[in-house]
């Protein structure tokens, strides 16, 4: 069995294991969960397992093929796919912005050690800012630009927020990759009189590929998460984030409904990471000793 098929088998076994754990806990767990303290103000340490809180997996799957909210509406899976396409497009824009910004930071930090000392701590600290606090700020700035400078659609604010999560792994991974060539190789390029750009193109960028590809996959998954959270925070319609919020409000009457956009978000993350894997397939000669994400 090749490594590719082995990965597919392990991925399928992982999905089966999650489904089995879900159904096992639903069967064995207490219907009202476990609460420490009073029922009203206590801390719930285990979730409820009754059908309204935790539907069976086959019920959630069957719900995908029923009408979204009425007889005249399309099947739920088709509505979710529409939201996935919208969110995927925005996440792709956010991913591109994040890759460009991350690469610029990495090049700057690799070129000048002083820049690395000054920027890297702030890049790390930037990821500790909660996205839900950052999103309204970006939305407000976008509204001001829209009023005074140029049209600024809501999806662009969502893409900027998605890029905020995407740039970090690219900056760190690319910095590690660009710094990976041995000193003897850099000295050899210098002895040939190679310029910085020639050294970058012929030595550092090829050496960075094994570190950059896992970072790009991680950035793609982060961009999807950022886009979904930003859609919820900004209230943009049409994507998975807003859909998730709207369907969650119907959870008491239709418990399986809110799980459909969650499944969509999971599939979207896999599609985004898989798209980057296709990009990596074109760079196989540079992928010896690829780092794991």
UniProtKB/TrEMBL annotation:
It comes from the Bacteria. Residues 84-280 form the ABC transmembrane type-1 domain. It is found in: Cell membrane. One of its GO terms (biological process) is transmembrane transport. Gene3D superfamilies: MetI-like (1.10.3720.10). Its main location: membrane. One of its GO terms (cellular component) is plasma membrane. It is a multi-pass membrane protein. Keywords: Cell membrane, Membrane, Transmembrane, Transmembrane helix, Transport. Pfam families: BPD_transp_1 (PF00528). The chain crosses the membrane at residues 7-25, 76-107, 119-143, 155-175, 211-236, 256-279. InterPro entries: MetI-like, MetI-like_sf. Belongs to the binding-protein-dependent transport system permease family. PANTHER family: ABC TRANSPORTER PERMEASE PROTEIN, ALKANE SULFONATE ABC TRANSPORTER-RELATED, MEMBRANE SUBUNIT. This is NitT/TauT family transport system permease protein. It comes from Microbacterium endophyticum.
């Amino acid at each position: 069995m090749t490594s590719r098929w082995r990965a597919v088998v392990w991925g399928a076994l992982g999905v089966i294991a999650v489904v089995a754990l879900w159904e096992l806990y639903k069967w064995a767990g207490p219907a009202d969960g476990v609460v420490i303290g009073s029922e009203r103000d206590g801390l719930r340490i285990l979730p409820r397992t009754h059908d309204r809180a935790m539907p069976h997996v086959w019920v959630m799957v069957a719900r995908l093929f029923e009408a979204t909210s009425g007889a005249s509406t399309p099947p739920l899976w088709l509505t979710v796919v529409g939201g996935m396409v919208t969110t995927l497009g925005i996440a792709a824009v956010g991913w591109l912005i994040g890759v460009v910004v991350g690469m610029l930071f990495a090049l700057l930090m690799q070129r000048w050690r002083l820049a690395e000392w000054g920027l890297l701590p702030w890049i790390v600290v930037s990821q500790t800012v909660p996205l839900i606090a950052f999103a309204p700020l970006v939305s407000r700035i976008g509204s001001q630009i829209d009023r005074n400078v140029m049209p600024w659609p809501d999806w662009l604010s969502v893409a900027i927020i998605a890029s905020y999560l995407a740039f970090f792994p690219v900056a760190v991974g690319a910095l590690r990759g660009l710094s990976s060539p041995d000193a003897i190789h850099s000295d050899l390029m210098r002895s040939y009189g190679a310029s910085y750009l020639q050294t970058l193109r012929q030595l550092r960028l090829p050496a960075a590929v094994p570190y950059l590809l896992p970072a790009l996959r991680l950035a793609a998954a982060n961009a999807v998460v950022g886009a979904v959270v930003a859609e919820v925070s900004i209230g943009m319609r049409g994507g998975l984030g807003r859909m998730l919020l709207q369907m969650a409000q119907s959870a008491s009457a239709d418990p399986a409904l809110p799980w459909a956009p969650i499944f969509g978000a999971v599939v979207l993350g896999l599609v985004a990471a898989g798209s980057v894997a296709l990009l990596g397939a074109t760079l196989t000669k540079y992928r010896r000793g690829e780092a794991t994400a």
